[in-house]
Amino acid sequence: MMDEEEVILKKKRRKKRRRRILIRFVTCVILILALIGLITVISLIVYGVSRLVNRFSQGGSQASVVETVDPAPVSDIDIPNVTIDDPVVVSSDSPSSGDQHLTINLQMLTKNPYSRPGRPLNSVNAVVIHYTASPGGTAAQNREYFEDLRIHKTTKASSHFIVGLEGEVVQCIPTREIAYASNQRNDDTVAIECCHKDESGKFNSATLDSMKKLTAWLLVRYGLSANDETIIRHYDVSGKLCPKYFVEHEDEWKKFKDSVADYIEKNKEALKAEDYLIFKQ
Questions:
Q1: 10-residue mean pLDDT series, the chain (281 residues)
Q2: Cα separation, 64 vs 62, whole angstroms
Q3: pLDDT at 9
Q4: Between the chain's N and C termini, which has fewer beta carbons within 10 Å?
Q5: How far is it, in rounded angstroms, from Cα 12 to Cα 145?
Q6: CATH class of 74-280
Q7: How far apart are CA 9 and CA 11, in angstroms?
Q8: Residue 37: partners with Cβ closer than 8 Å, 6 or more residues away
């Protein structure tokens, strides 16, 4: 009888020992996973902070740069015809932009693998609206950010056009070439990068007005009607929160698209005219 009891006790002890070992093993695994998770979070925070520091060290915005770079050589611009692909530069005494005109400041990027690869854009099926994500940054600063990528080589990014806080429009890349802007839609879209004053990403009236006119002109230029397939956000391509205000306020995005359609309806003949866009260097 005693032998049976001892056997039972030994079995119970073995079970307890195995249970303790299992508990310790599971605890160790949980601690290791928690440590890995903590290290990952810290690494992401450090990476994010370093990106922010790098951004602001370049002048307080995504696009500002301290180092002066040489402008794109004239041979890279090629401007023999009156089209937005190869625009004619008009004199400074040409009419100022108004409801029947829009001035485009030609500041083409130097060809390079990081912001102007020079790859042909063979078709245009939509216009993609972006925001700079650099509150207070100007069109000129954002253009210089793109230009400096050929030096810093930190990422690949660019846009065909940048609309500034005062409604100024800078063209960085001819529309016969792709821009590094819209992920998988780089090959069939024209990109418009838009400046904003604060973290909300809301565009002021001057910026919105030029966005509307430029988008309308591009749609007419490429024979596209104004609809949800031809006027899209970066968000609609990749899910990125861009342009932030239009993603967070669907009503404002609809209002913008409606304003483009309305502007085309009222100004279609003017938009077709050769002198609608005034190019300056």
A1: 66 79 86 85 68 42 32 33 42 45 96 97 97 97 97 97 98 97 97 98 98 98 97 97 98 98 96 92 86
A2: 6
A3: 72
A4: N
A5: 71
A6: alpha beta
A7: 5
A8: none
How much is the pLDDT for 46? 66
What pLDDT score was predicted for residue 153? Answer: 96
Strand partners, 169: 104, 163
Of the candidates 200, 185, 187, the residue with the CA atom closest to the CA atom of residue 236:
185
Containing 231, the helix (H) or strand (E) segment is strand 231-233
Output the pLDDT for position 68: 28
| Angle subtended at Cα 218 by Cα 214 and Cα 220, rounded to the nearest 5 degrees | 120
pLDDT given at position 11: 73
Judge whether 178 and 187 are in contact, CB under 8 Å: yes
* Contact assessment for residue 171 and residue 161, using Cβ atoms and an 8 Å cutoff: yes
SS3 102: strand
- Whether the bond into 243 is cis, omega within 30 of 0: yes
pLDDT of residue 142: 98
Helix (H, G, I), strand (E, B) or coil at 136: coil
Domains of the chain, residue spans: 1-57, 74-280
- Among 91, 176, 110, which residue's Cα sits nearest to residue 148? 110
Joined tokens for residue 83: 């089209």
